[in-house]
Design goal:
Chain A: Belongs to the eukaryotic-type primase large subunit family. The complex is a heterodimer of chains A (501) and B (417). Helices cover 58% and strands 3% of the residues of chain A. Chain A has 501 residues and is mainly alpha-helical. In chain A, strands 1-2-4-3 form a four-stranded antiparallel beta sheet, with no helix packed on it. By secondary structure, chain B is of the alpha+beta class. The N and C termini of chain B lie far apart (61 Å). The radius of gyration of chain B is 24 Å and the shape is globular. The chains are: A mainly alpha (501), B alpha+beta (417).
């Protein structure tokens, strides 16, 4: 069937037919899906959005795992847990579950996100990377038998190496480093299956010298075939995204879908699922923070960047423009109303006259609340923006201390700010190590964990379920939540004691 | 005599005459384009010029050979570089939206430079090169050329002398042209063995423990062992100096062996490299055959051979499609030598000191002009009367093979309809 010699590099068209057999009875025979065929059935608007949001949560968690430098095993267990929560996908053996229903959800979610993420190079790249990882986690957690069934259902365009050829390259094949690691006997070699593909399809194996190469063909041991599957998945998805991007303008007419898609992709870019953004920007925290409470809140709940801005403001009675912007928007999302904000800034800038304040600063504060000029409701800056945009100059205090402070300054700032919350000098080496490696998110998340240990936050837990800090407001919100929970618990304990007594 | 840098680089007038009369624009285009009529492989290709006074002009592109030649003669650059084929004409870059301008294709290129061998060569250093240290390049070319043909199956390899102390390899097979950056990275790490900076002693880490080398490297080992004897032990005498043999001892994992040798060599520093290598072999033979120690030492000796002779790549050049590399037949601004193609079959006979310089070529041209009657036909093929001739013919043959293949696949494609 396959003749290696005749085959040239595959063209995208070649794959088109006969990839997936859709049986009318069970459209999803396997847990794994290569998403070759888009959903060709009616999808309600609600399903459209909810399936996508659920998937987005998972992908965002995978992304933050990359940033947190989790090992693959950690990533696998975190992702698997998250999948169970938001996007269950059971094996065929779980006959009591609504298998077709959950697979349909998985299918729809994937294709909605394709629409949302095909628009820019950056989004496409990140989407492919996260989807690849999700596929890999599912592949690894899949039942061996079902995995084989899935492999057989799809033509991967591999050529099996026949015995004659295998014998001819026996010596070389047996000397491939990944084989010699496990005492490789000749009997075993006879039993093992090899496939050959163009080397360009398995660059990761070539990179590690885990295959035997001859004339541009890579001889791949069956053990490594998963690598080919992943590669295939990635290439397919990349191609499909490019095609979707070209077709997308035709969707512009649809006023129902575009806002949903916009929202989805923005959430992903900020590194947080959009759900979190929407709940915060609508002022769900809007417990109405008073100007005079800010100082107290800063000491208890603010991440290092905001602590630094707050302290600079208190010390210098002034902040430069970018600092005012970063801190002001943060306070807005924290729940400080416009009146309180003006009161807070007026009080903080105690060295200047009312006249100057009204002329130079009031407008900007109102502007950031969407009350002047363009009247846009600006979101607070995410960690990514703080890290990447507008590096602080010599007299400025904005930015991310983990990234922009010198090591000495960062160490003393951390001790000064958080020693009241249980941060000690012995925690410094770990933090500084992470900082040196450039993982500022991770350092910040770790400081959060240390300073909230007394609320029961454990190492690796982050802001809940292993999620890491991606937004200063997320830090503050979670910190306040924890405190509230602690107070409530203390109260109920006291009540219980009273009752007991 | 080693090639020394001319105190003066070739004058602008010489350069201009060279471009006008000798530079093989047509051959270069055939080679880049794979066809006679300019395709996107040529028109969407980036050329970057380095002008007098180190002004760097990027994103030039040309519709035809004439166009290109005219521009080169107007700008009279000291050299120019060839980049990738983009999705659009590079000269229109500014008018295209950012996402619409990405590199698509590019020859797979490798760069081997003598500077990477500074820690082991004893005859020259830095920019200097002589026939003796060229042997390192010879070994590298032999290994790379056969590895790429055999393992990756590529056929259209063009080796080009870089004009001073290195060599470039351009691979124009269709699959090689289309490799993504990830695939390029993979091929580099498949080939590259020498890793680690100045401060790492052991630079070869290609095996697990003391197990055999991967098959691709095992294959390279035989020819390299031969070079190791001739080049490292005899010619370069790498372990003669104290620094040299100390470096060798750092690579010996067995403590007792290295201590014995250190004692011996400190006492008798005049021992030649060959003697020292024999000393090492003798010490190894004393270890019981088949024992783990013996295996470790045998592996270490293989690794030493690789470390001293295996090609040392400038990996960054190969990893990205949009890396620019100096075009063949440019004049090296420091030496005045032409970057001529080199035949890997006869690389042993190649002598960088005999590569023509731009002065020499123009002199040759003037002399033949005097002999011939001045009315002799158009000086279209002026280069035929200089020592540049065999080199240009080599490029033409290479380009012809590429064009044949394109014609064949086209005809093949037609048959299927």
């Amino acid at each position: 069937m396959f003749n290696a010699g005749k085959r040239t590099t595959s063209t995208p068209l070649k794959h088109a037919p006969a990839e997936v057999q859709l049986h009318s009875t069970a459209p999803y025979p396997h847990r794994l899906n290569f998403y070759d065929v888009p959903p060709l059935f009616d999808v309600t608007l609600e399903e459209f959005e909810s399936a996508a949001l659920a998937r987005l949560r998972i992908l965002a968690e995978i992304e933050s795992s990359f940033v947190r430098n989790r090992s693959y095993d950690e990533l696998k267990s975190v992702t698997d847990a998250q999948c169970k929560k938001y996007l269950t996908l059971n094996a065929n053996s779980a006959s009591t579950q609504d298998l077709q229903g959950e697979r349909r959800r998985d299918h729809v979610g994937h294709f909605v996100l394709r629409l949302a993420f095909c628009r820019s190079e950056e989004l496409r790249r990140r989407f492919v990377k996260a989807e690849m990882m999700l596929f890999r986690v599912r592949w690894d957690t899949d039942d061996t038998r079902e995995r084989e069934g899935f492999l057989e259902s799809r033509d991967f365009d591999w050529t099996p190496v026949d015995d004659k050829e295998k014998e001819a390259y026996k010596e070389e094949l047996m000397a491939v480093p990944s084989n010699i690691r496990t005492q490789y006997s000749e009997g075993q070699f006879k039993k093992d299956k090899y496939h050959k593909v163009r080397w360009t399809r398995v660059p990761d194996l070539v990179e590690k010298r885990r295959v035997f190469l001859k004339g541009g063909w890579a001889y791949v041991h069956e053990r490594e075939s998963s690598s080919m599957v992943f590669q295939e998945f990635q290439i397919n998805l990349e191609k499909a995204l490019d095609m979707t991007a070209k077709a997308l303008p035709r969707l512009d007419e649809d006023t129902r879908l575009i806002p949903i898609l916009d929202n989805l992709s923005q959430g992903f870019l900020a590194g947080v699922p959009s759900e979190w953004l929407s709940s915060s920007s609508s002022g769900a925290e809007g417990s109405g923070v008073k100007a005079e409470e800010i100082d107290d809140l800063a000491k208890k709940h603010f991440p290092m960047c905001m602590r630094n801005l707050h302290e600079s403001l208190m010390r210098d009675r002034h902040l430069k423009h970018m600092g005012r912007l970063q801190y002001g928007l943060f306070l807005k999302v924290l729940g400080v109303s416009i009146d309180e904000a003006i009161a807070f800034w007026r009080r903080s800038f105690s060295n200047i006259t009312d006249d100057k304040f009204n002329k130079e600063y009031r407008y900007n504060i109102r502007h950031s609340y969407g009350l002047e000029g363009r009247r846009a409701n600006y979101p607070a800056k995410s960690c990514q923006q703080i890290l990447m945009q507008d590096q602080p100059g010599s007299a400025e205090s904005h930015g991310c201390p983990y990234r922009h402070f010198s090591e000495d300054n960062l160490q003393s700032a951390l001790l000064a700010s958080y020693s009241a919350h249980g941060f000690t000098a012995s925690d410094l080496p770990e933090i500084m190590h992470t900082v040196r490696a450039g993982h500022y998110h991770v350092a910040c998340t770790r400081v959060f964990e240390i300073t909230h240990a007394r609320s029961g936050v454990k190492k690796g837990e982050g802001v809940g379920g292993g999620e890491s800090i991606t937004h200063p407001n997320q830090y503050a919100a979670r910190s306040r939540e924890l405190e509230k929970a602690r107070q409530e618990k203390a109260e109920s304990d006291r009540d219980a004691m009273l009752v007991d007594g | 005599m080693a090639i020394t840098e001319n105190s003066e680089s070739p004058s602008p007038e010489l350069m201009l005459a060279f471009y006008r009369r000798l530079y093989p624009f047509k051959s270069i285009m055939n080679w880049l384009n794979h066809e006679h009529v300019p395709t996107k492989l040529y028109t969407h290709r980036e050329f970057a010029f380095t002008l007098q006074g180190d002004v760097y002009l990027r994103y030039n592109s040309f519709n035809s050979v004439e166009d290109f030649k005219k521009q080169v003669c107007t700008l009279n650059p000291t050299r120019f570089e060839i980049g990738p084929v983009y999705t659009a004409r590079p000269r229109d870059k500014r008018t295209i939206r950012p996402g619409g301008f990405t590199p698509l294709q590019r020859e797979l290129v490798f760069d081997i430079d003598m500077t990477d061998y500074d820690s082991i060569r004893t005859c020259c250093s830095d920019a200097g090169i002589c026939k003796r240290c060229w042997a390192f390049i010879t070994a590298a070319v032999k290994v790379m050329d056969s590895a790429i043909r055999d393992q990756f199956g590529y056929k259209h390899l063009l080796w080009v002398y870089s004009g001073r102390r290195g060599i470039h390899l351009w691979i124009s097979d269709k699959e090689a042209m289309e490799l993504t950056d990830d695939q390029r990275k993979a091929i580099v790490s498949w080939i590259a063995v020498i890793t680690g900076g100045k401060d790492t002693h052991k630079k070869v880490n290609a095996r697990t423990g003391s197990r055999p080398l991967p098959p691709s490297l095992q294959m390279a080992l035989d020819p390299l062992a031969h070079y190791f004897g001739d080049l490292i032990l005899n010619d370069q005498d790498c372990f003669a100096s104290q620094e040299g043999w100390e470096a060798l001892l750092h690579l010996v994992p067995d403590r007792s062996v290295s201590e014995n040798l250190e004692k011996l060599w400190t006492k008798d520093p005049s021992r030649s490299s060959t003697q020292k290598w024999d000393d090492l072999k003798r010490e190894v033979k004393r270890i019981e055959k088949g024992s783990a120690q013996r295996l470790v030492m045998q592996a270490a000796m293989e690794d030493i051979i690789l470390q001293y002779t295996y090609p040392r790549l400038d990996a960054e050049v190969s990893k990205h499609r949009n890396h620019l590399l100096k075009a063949p037949f440019c004049v090296h601004p420091k030496t005045g030598r032409i970057c001529v193609p080199v035949d890997p079959e006869h690389i042993d006979e190649f002598d960088p000191e005999r590569v023509p310089t731009v002065d020499q070529l123009l002199k040759e041209l003037d002399e033949t002009m005097v002999q011939d009657s001045p009315e002799n036909e158009e000086h279209h093929f002026d280069w035929e009367r200089t020592s540049l001739k065999p080199y240009i013919e080599m490029l033409d043959r290479h380009a012809m093979a590429l064009m044949d293949e394109v014609r064949r696949t086209k005809r093949g494609a037609d048959m299927t309809w």
